[in-house]
Amino acid sequence: xxxxxxxxxxxxxxxxxxxxxxxxxxxxxxxxxxxxxxxxxxxxxxxxxxxxxxxxxxxxxxxxxxxxxxxxxxxxxxxxxxxxxxxxxxxxxxxxxxxxxxxxxxxxxxxxxxxxxxxxxxxxxxxxxxxxxxxxxxxxxxxxxxxxxxxxxxxxxxxxxxxxxxxxxxxxxxxxxxxxxxxxxxxxxxxxxxxxxxxxxxxxxxxxxxxxxxxxxxxxxxxxxxxxxxxxxxxxxxxxxxxxxxxxxxxxxxxxxxxxxxxxxxxxxxxxxxxxxxxxxxxxxxxxxxxxxxxxxxxxxxxxxxxxxxxxxxxxxxxxxxxxxxxxxxxxxxxxxxxxxxxxxxxxxxxxxxxx
Length: 356
Ligand SMILES: Nc1ncnc2c1ncn2[C@@H]1O[C@H](COP(=O)(O)OP(=O)(O)OP(=O)(O)O)[C@@H](O)[C@H]1O
Ligand SMILES: [Mg+2]
Fold this sequence. Notes:
By secondary structure, the protein is of the alpha+beta class. Helices cover 22% and strands 36% of the residues. The protein folds into two domains: 4-232, 3-Layer(aba) Sandwich (Rossmann fold), CATH 3.40.50; 237-355, CATH 2.40.50.140. The protein is built from eight helices and 21 strands. Helix 4 packs parallel to helix 5 (168-184). The protein is elongated and about 80 Å long. Bound molecules: adenosine-5'-triphosphate and magnesium ion (MG). It comes from Marinibacterium profundimaris. One of its GO terms (molecular function) is ATP hydrolysis activity.
């Protein structure tokens, strides 16, 4: 049975649906990332689950028990839900120990103290137990906030961009620690982010959200390699798009033919692929590589510009046949001069064909 189940949540603001029939379910010990662009309704969804915002229709269930919807509405503090937001404000006048102990109501003094010590040890901050928040760095405060949120053993943890205030290096470490801790506690985690990297790194399942709707759910690998639509591709990376028309279940382009099974004749399609999948070849006296069944036909372009990005190089090509720009990324240093002719091929298994 899922720890958290959300069915058909709907919430409108000024007549506009901001959460539009959202359904989700999360098992204990599982992390689902609600991923989507700014304003798509992620925080509103989280707030409804937490009980600080009301849905118009739809239900929220905790371990199969209705906690909200259908006339029921358990107050936030009785939902057994832990919250962690970007602005996680610790209580400045309480010590680290008292901050972490804040949500602990049951148990003896000794038991509560033991729990506080256990958690501070887990986030590697036991030495700060008697310090005050202002004596800690931002990252340390964040870990205290995490310990505080986890202390009462929430069955569900809702996190809204909890790592966005941290610098990159710190963030990776804290993300991993957070995950370990939450998995050890067997909580169901719903983490909101607009950063694909964060979702890929943390999620067991990604729920891709757009304009109030969940457009795709799946493991990070699935969402990345089998995106539901063009926007789902471009949410995770830069993309190239070429247009074509389908005839006999094939879309014919300067790069050869692409399979478009089940697409009716005459349909305009977009063939979408990522820059890292473009294959680059040198020009051999005006000729490129020979066609292959797997990669189709090569097409020629001139280097428009090359940029070194650190772990990879980005090269843009102005294509001979239609003057359009295509992007390719190559690991390491590769910076051909502008104007240099090169040949591009597009491996078929890395392409997505969507109706335009
Ligand atoms: N109380 C409110 N009254 C009116 N409109 C609201 C209210 N709360 C949210 N909205 C609107 O609902 C939409 C979704 O807001 P929400 O905060 O859920 O987005 P989000 O996905 O969390 O975005 P971000 O990534 O920027 O945090 C926005 O257009 C926002 O302006
Ligand atoms: Mg938000």
